[in-house]
Amino acid sequence: MNSKEAYLHHLVITCDNESVKRLLENGDININVRDEKGNHVIHKATKKRNVELLKLLLEAGANINSVNFELNSALHVAIENHAVDCVKLLLEKNIIVNIINSKEESELIIALKLSEVFRREKDEIIKLLSNFEAYDLKMELSGRKNYLHYACWKGNHFLATKLITEYPELHARDYLNDYPIHFAVWCGHNSVANLMFERIPKLNINLLGAYNWTMLLWAASRTQLATIELLVSKGANCNFKRKD
């Protein structure tokens, strides 16, 4: 990275849009140079949630599909920083999606893990991703999990509803033999657990998961009293014994 390229990175970090524009107009600069962490200028613009600067960089030839050394695209970074407008712009420009980074997290997994402090942005990003035509909602994730496992784990009713309605086959075992509903009851997400019972005909209330534990055992292990009450009301076997 030469001095002019380093200056460009500095201007992006400081959100000096006008100076970036003037520097790019002068030409003779490689806009796609990485820094020491592999970040391109569009990674830094999205981290700052600066959608106008992101647009300017893309129009000047920044590679929208570039990834850093952690295999994060600008979309990963935008989501991590709850930058809704940047997410919208990147999707409008047809950025490549379904990218798994070095932490084994896709764009949608990062969105599901966003803090509830940013609930409005989180919900909007999840809707944008799940409705994006190129997004593969059925892809197999680490540990043979799928997005229904994650939706149940994080208690995201919107995504869980969409997935179980459109792709009921996603209610399947992961590597440890847990079904998505096991994650819902373990975390006490009763509305999502109820959703699974409503949408899956003849769902076994004593369905075994990891370690041959039933849903009731998982709920009891976390002292999820409301969940225990829900499961018992649906006929869970309170006298079940594990077969090790």
What keywords describe this structure?
Serine Threonine Protein Phosphatase 5, Tetratricopeptide repeat, 0% strand, Ankyrin_rpt-contain_sf, presynaptic neurotoxin, 2 domains, 244 residues, membrane, mainly alpha
Question: Which helices and strands appear, and what pairs or packs with what?
Answer:
Elements lengths: L2 H11 L3 H9 L15 H7 L3 H9 L14 H7 L3 H9 L14 H6 L6 H12 L16 H8 L2 H10 L13 H7 L3 H10 L15 H7 L3 H9 L11
CATH architecture of the largest domain: Alpha Horseshoe
Q: Mind summarizing the main beta sheet?
A: none
Q: What is the rounded Rg?
A: 22 Å
- Mean pLDDT equals 95
Order of helices and strands: HHHHHHHHHHHHHH
Structural class: mainly alpha
Full CATH superfamily name of the largest domain = Ankyrin repeat-containing domain
Strand content: under 5%
Give the count of structural domains.
Answer: 2
Quote the distance from N terminus to C terminus.
Answer: 59 Å
Family: Belongs to the cationic peptide 01 (latrotoxin) family. 03 (alpha-latrotoxin) subfamily.
Subcellular location: Target cell membrane
Pfam families: Ank_2 (PF12796)
InterPro entries: Ankyrin_rpt, Ankyrin_rpt-contain_sf
Write a short abstract of this structure.
This protein is mainly alpha-helical and 244 residues long. 50% of the residues lie in helices and 0% in strands.
